[in-house]
């Protein structure tokens, strides 16, 4: 991770966890970028010799190709928002003395 001893021992467990997660995410992203470059080079090299055109993802598929699809988020309608607000308004808040 490139931490000096002083930096390492100054970290709390939580900040060390965050730093290590960030470091490994960056490392993973670097590896993926390298493989993506390899895929592009393979596609450009093989394309002139193939009878039919194929995409780079078809030539060299990776496990993370399916991960990049975004999940659909349901947007609440104004009526649903009103119902949630009313449910909170209907709850009585008791004050503790």
State the helix count.
Answer: 4
In whole angstroms, the N-to-C terminal distance is 51 Å
Q: What gross morphology would you assign?
A: flat
Order of helices and strands: HHHH
Share of β-strand residues: under 5%
Our Rg estimate from Cα atoms comes to 25 Å
Major sheet attributes: none
Helix content: 55-70%
Overall average pLDDT: 85
- Taking pLDDT < 50 over at least 5 consecutive residues as the criterion, the unreliable ranges are none
Explain what you see.
This protein is mostly helical. It has a domain at 5-67. It has 4 helices and no strands. The protein has helices spanning 5-10, 13-46, 56-59, 78-90. The longest helix has 34 residues, at 13-46. It is flat, with a radius of gyration of 25 Å. It starts with a helix and ends in a 7-residue tail after the last helix. The mean pLDDT is 85.
Write a brief structural summary.
By secondary structure, the protein is an all-alpha fold.
Annotate the secondary structure layout:
Blueprint: H1 5-10, H2 13-46, H3 56-59, H4 78-90
Summarize this structure as a short list of keywords or feature phrases:
97 residues; mainly alpha; 4 helices; flat
